[in-house]
Amino acid sequence: MEKTVKNREKAGCGIIGYGGMGGWHARHLAESDVGYLRGVWDIKPERNELAESQGIHAYKSEADLLADPDISVVTIATPNDVHAEIAIRALRAGKNVISEKPVTLNSKQLDAVIAVSEETGKLFTVHQNRRWDCDFMMMREAFRRPEFGKIFRIESRIQGSRGIPGDWRAEKAHGGGMIYDWGVHLIDQMLCIAAGLKIESVFCVCENVIGAECDEGFRMDINFEGGFTGHIEVGTHNFISLPRFYLTGTCGSAVIDDWRDSTRCICVKDWNDGPVKPVVTAAGMTKTMAPRAEDSMLEFRIERPASDVHDFYRNFIAATRGEAEQIVTHAQMRRVMKVMETAFMSDRAKSVIPFVE
Question: Who contacts 321 (Cβ-Cβ below 8 Å, separation ≥6)?
Fold first, then answer.
């Protein structure tokens, strides 16, 4: 009886698509203090059978799930190419909708979904869960600190050695490729770090190492006003990974080697560090690249903050009740989508493309 009462206080949630991310959402809803899982539906019968074997109700169809009056929030965890059409059907069925990323495959689809959200008065957002990653939160704090002087570059990387995933994520028709898979997260993070700065241009080079249909990795520069560049890399054939984040400014630098680390920061304390002692290399010497005297530098760490990814659902469900503003907004979704579209244009043109907000 106590569980039933508690569930009535929570928002009933349904999940369409019970693959990897559908299972992730199901597990998190099982621990949620604001929502509970009513059930799931997947186009594949074996996924519905798996859900039932795990004690999760599987609906007979998408329409059956959308007709459940006890569901107020629908989470879409399907292949990317059907996000938009499912979101529109769910919104028209009177549900608030969370879509897995990328929210859609292009701006036209996104605008169509947003129009239905505004027409029906139901909320719509995308699951940008990596705003709760500690490495991102630390780098955002570093960007705001004055010790680094004028910050002119942040590098953000995710690199692995297992190649592009072999399922639908490698198929162009389903919206595969690493820009849609990981790039969407790193772009969103970079735009949050540089919030308020105008984007001037985008340059992107996609990698196709083994001949997959989609990009297997990429290197992207988002150039902002004032001379700040956000550099983003995703690689799937990297057996030695470069730092997760690297920031540099006129007075200091910061690095996060791995997503599990805190942030190492080194800034200038005293510009007058005495005569420069040359560094002798095997083939010569250099003063330009000689290290500074240790006592002229200040080293400190930005420690990992407290973070709870459940705050995503807490915020969205509170927003559906008029108790909060939704964190991941339509304007932010549009901006990330525009950056991805400009990146694809840049790769095709092999040139820098001016960004249009």
Answer: none
Phi and psi at residue 293, to the nearest 5°? -65, 135
Give which of 307, 298, 178 is closest to 238, Cα–Cα: 178
Question: Which of these, 123, 71, 79, 74, lies nearest to 101 by C-alpha position?
Answer: 79
Q: In what order do the strands lie in the sheet with 35-41?
A: 35-41, 11-16, 73-76, 96-99, 124-126
DSSP structure class, residue 210: S
- Given a contact cutoff of 8 angstroms between Cβ atoms, the answer to whether 19 and 25 are in contact is no
- One-letter identity of residue 20: G
Q: How far apart are CA 163 and CA 242, in angstroms?
A: 17
The single-letter DSSP state of residue 228 is -
Chain centre to alpha carbon of residue 296: 38
Locate all alpha helices (DSSP H) within 145-299, ordered by sequence.
178, 184-193
Quote the pTM value.
Answer: 0.94
Each residue's pLDDT tens digit, 71-119: 999 999 999 999 999 999 999 999 999 999 999 999 999 999 999 999 9
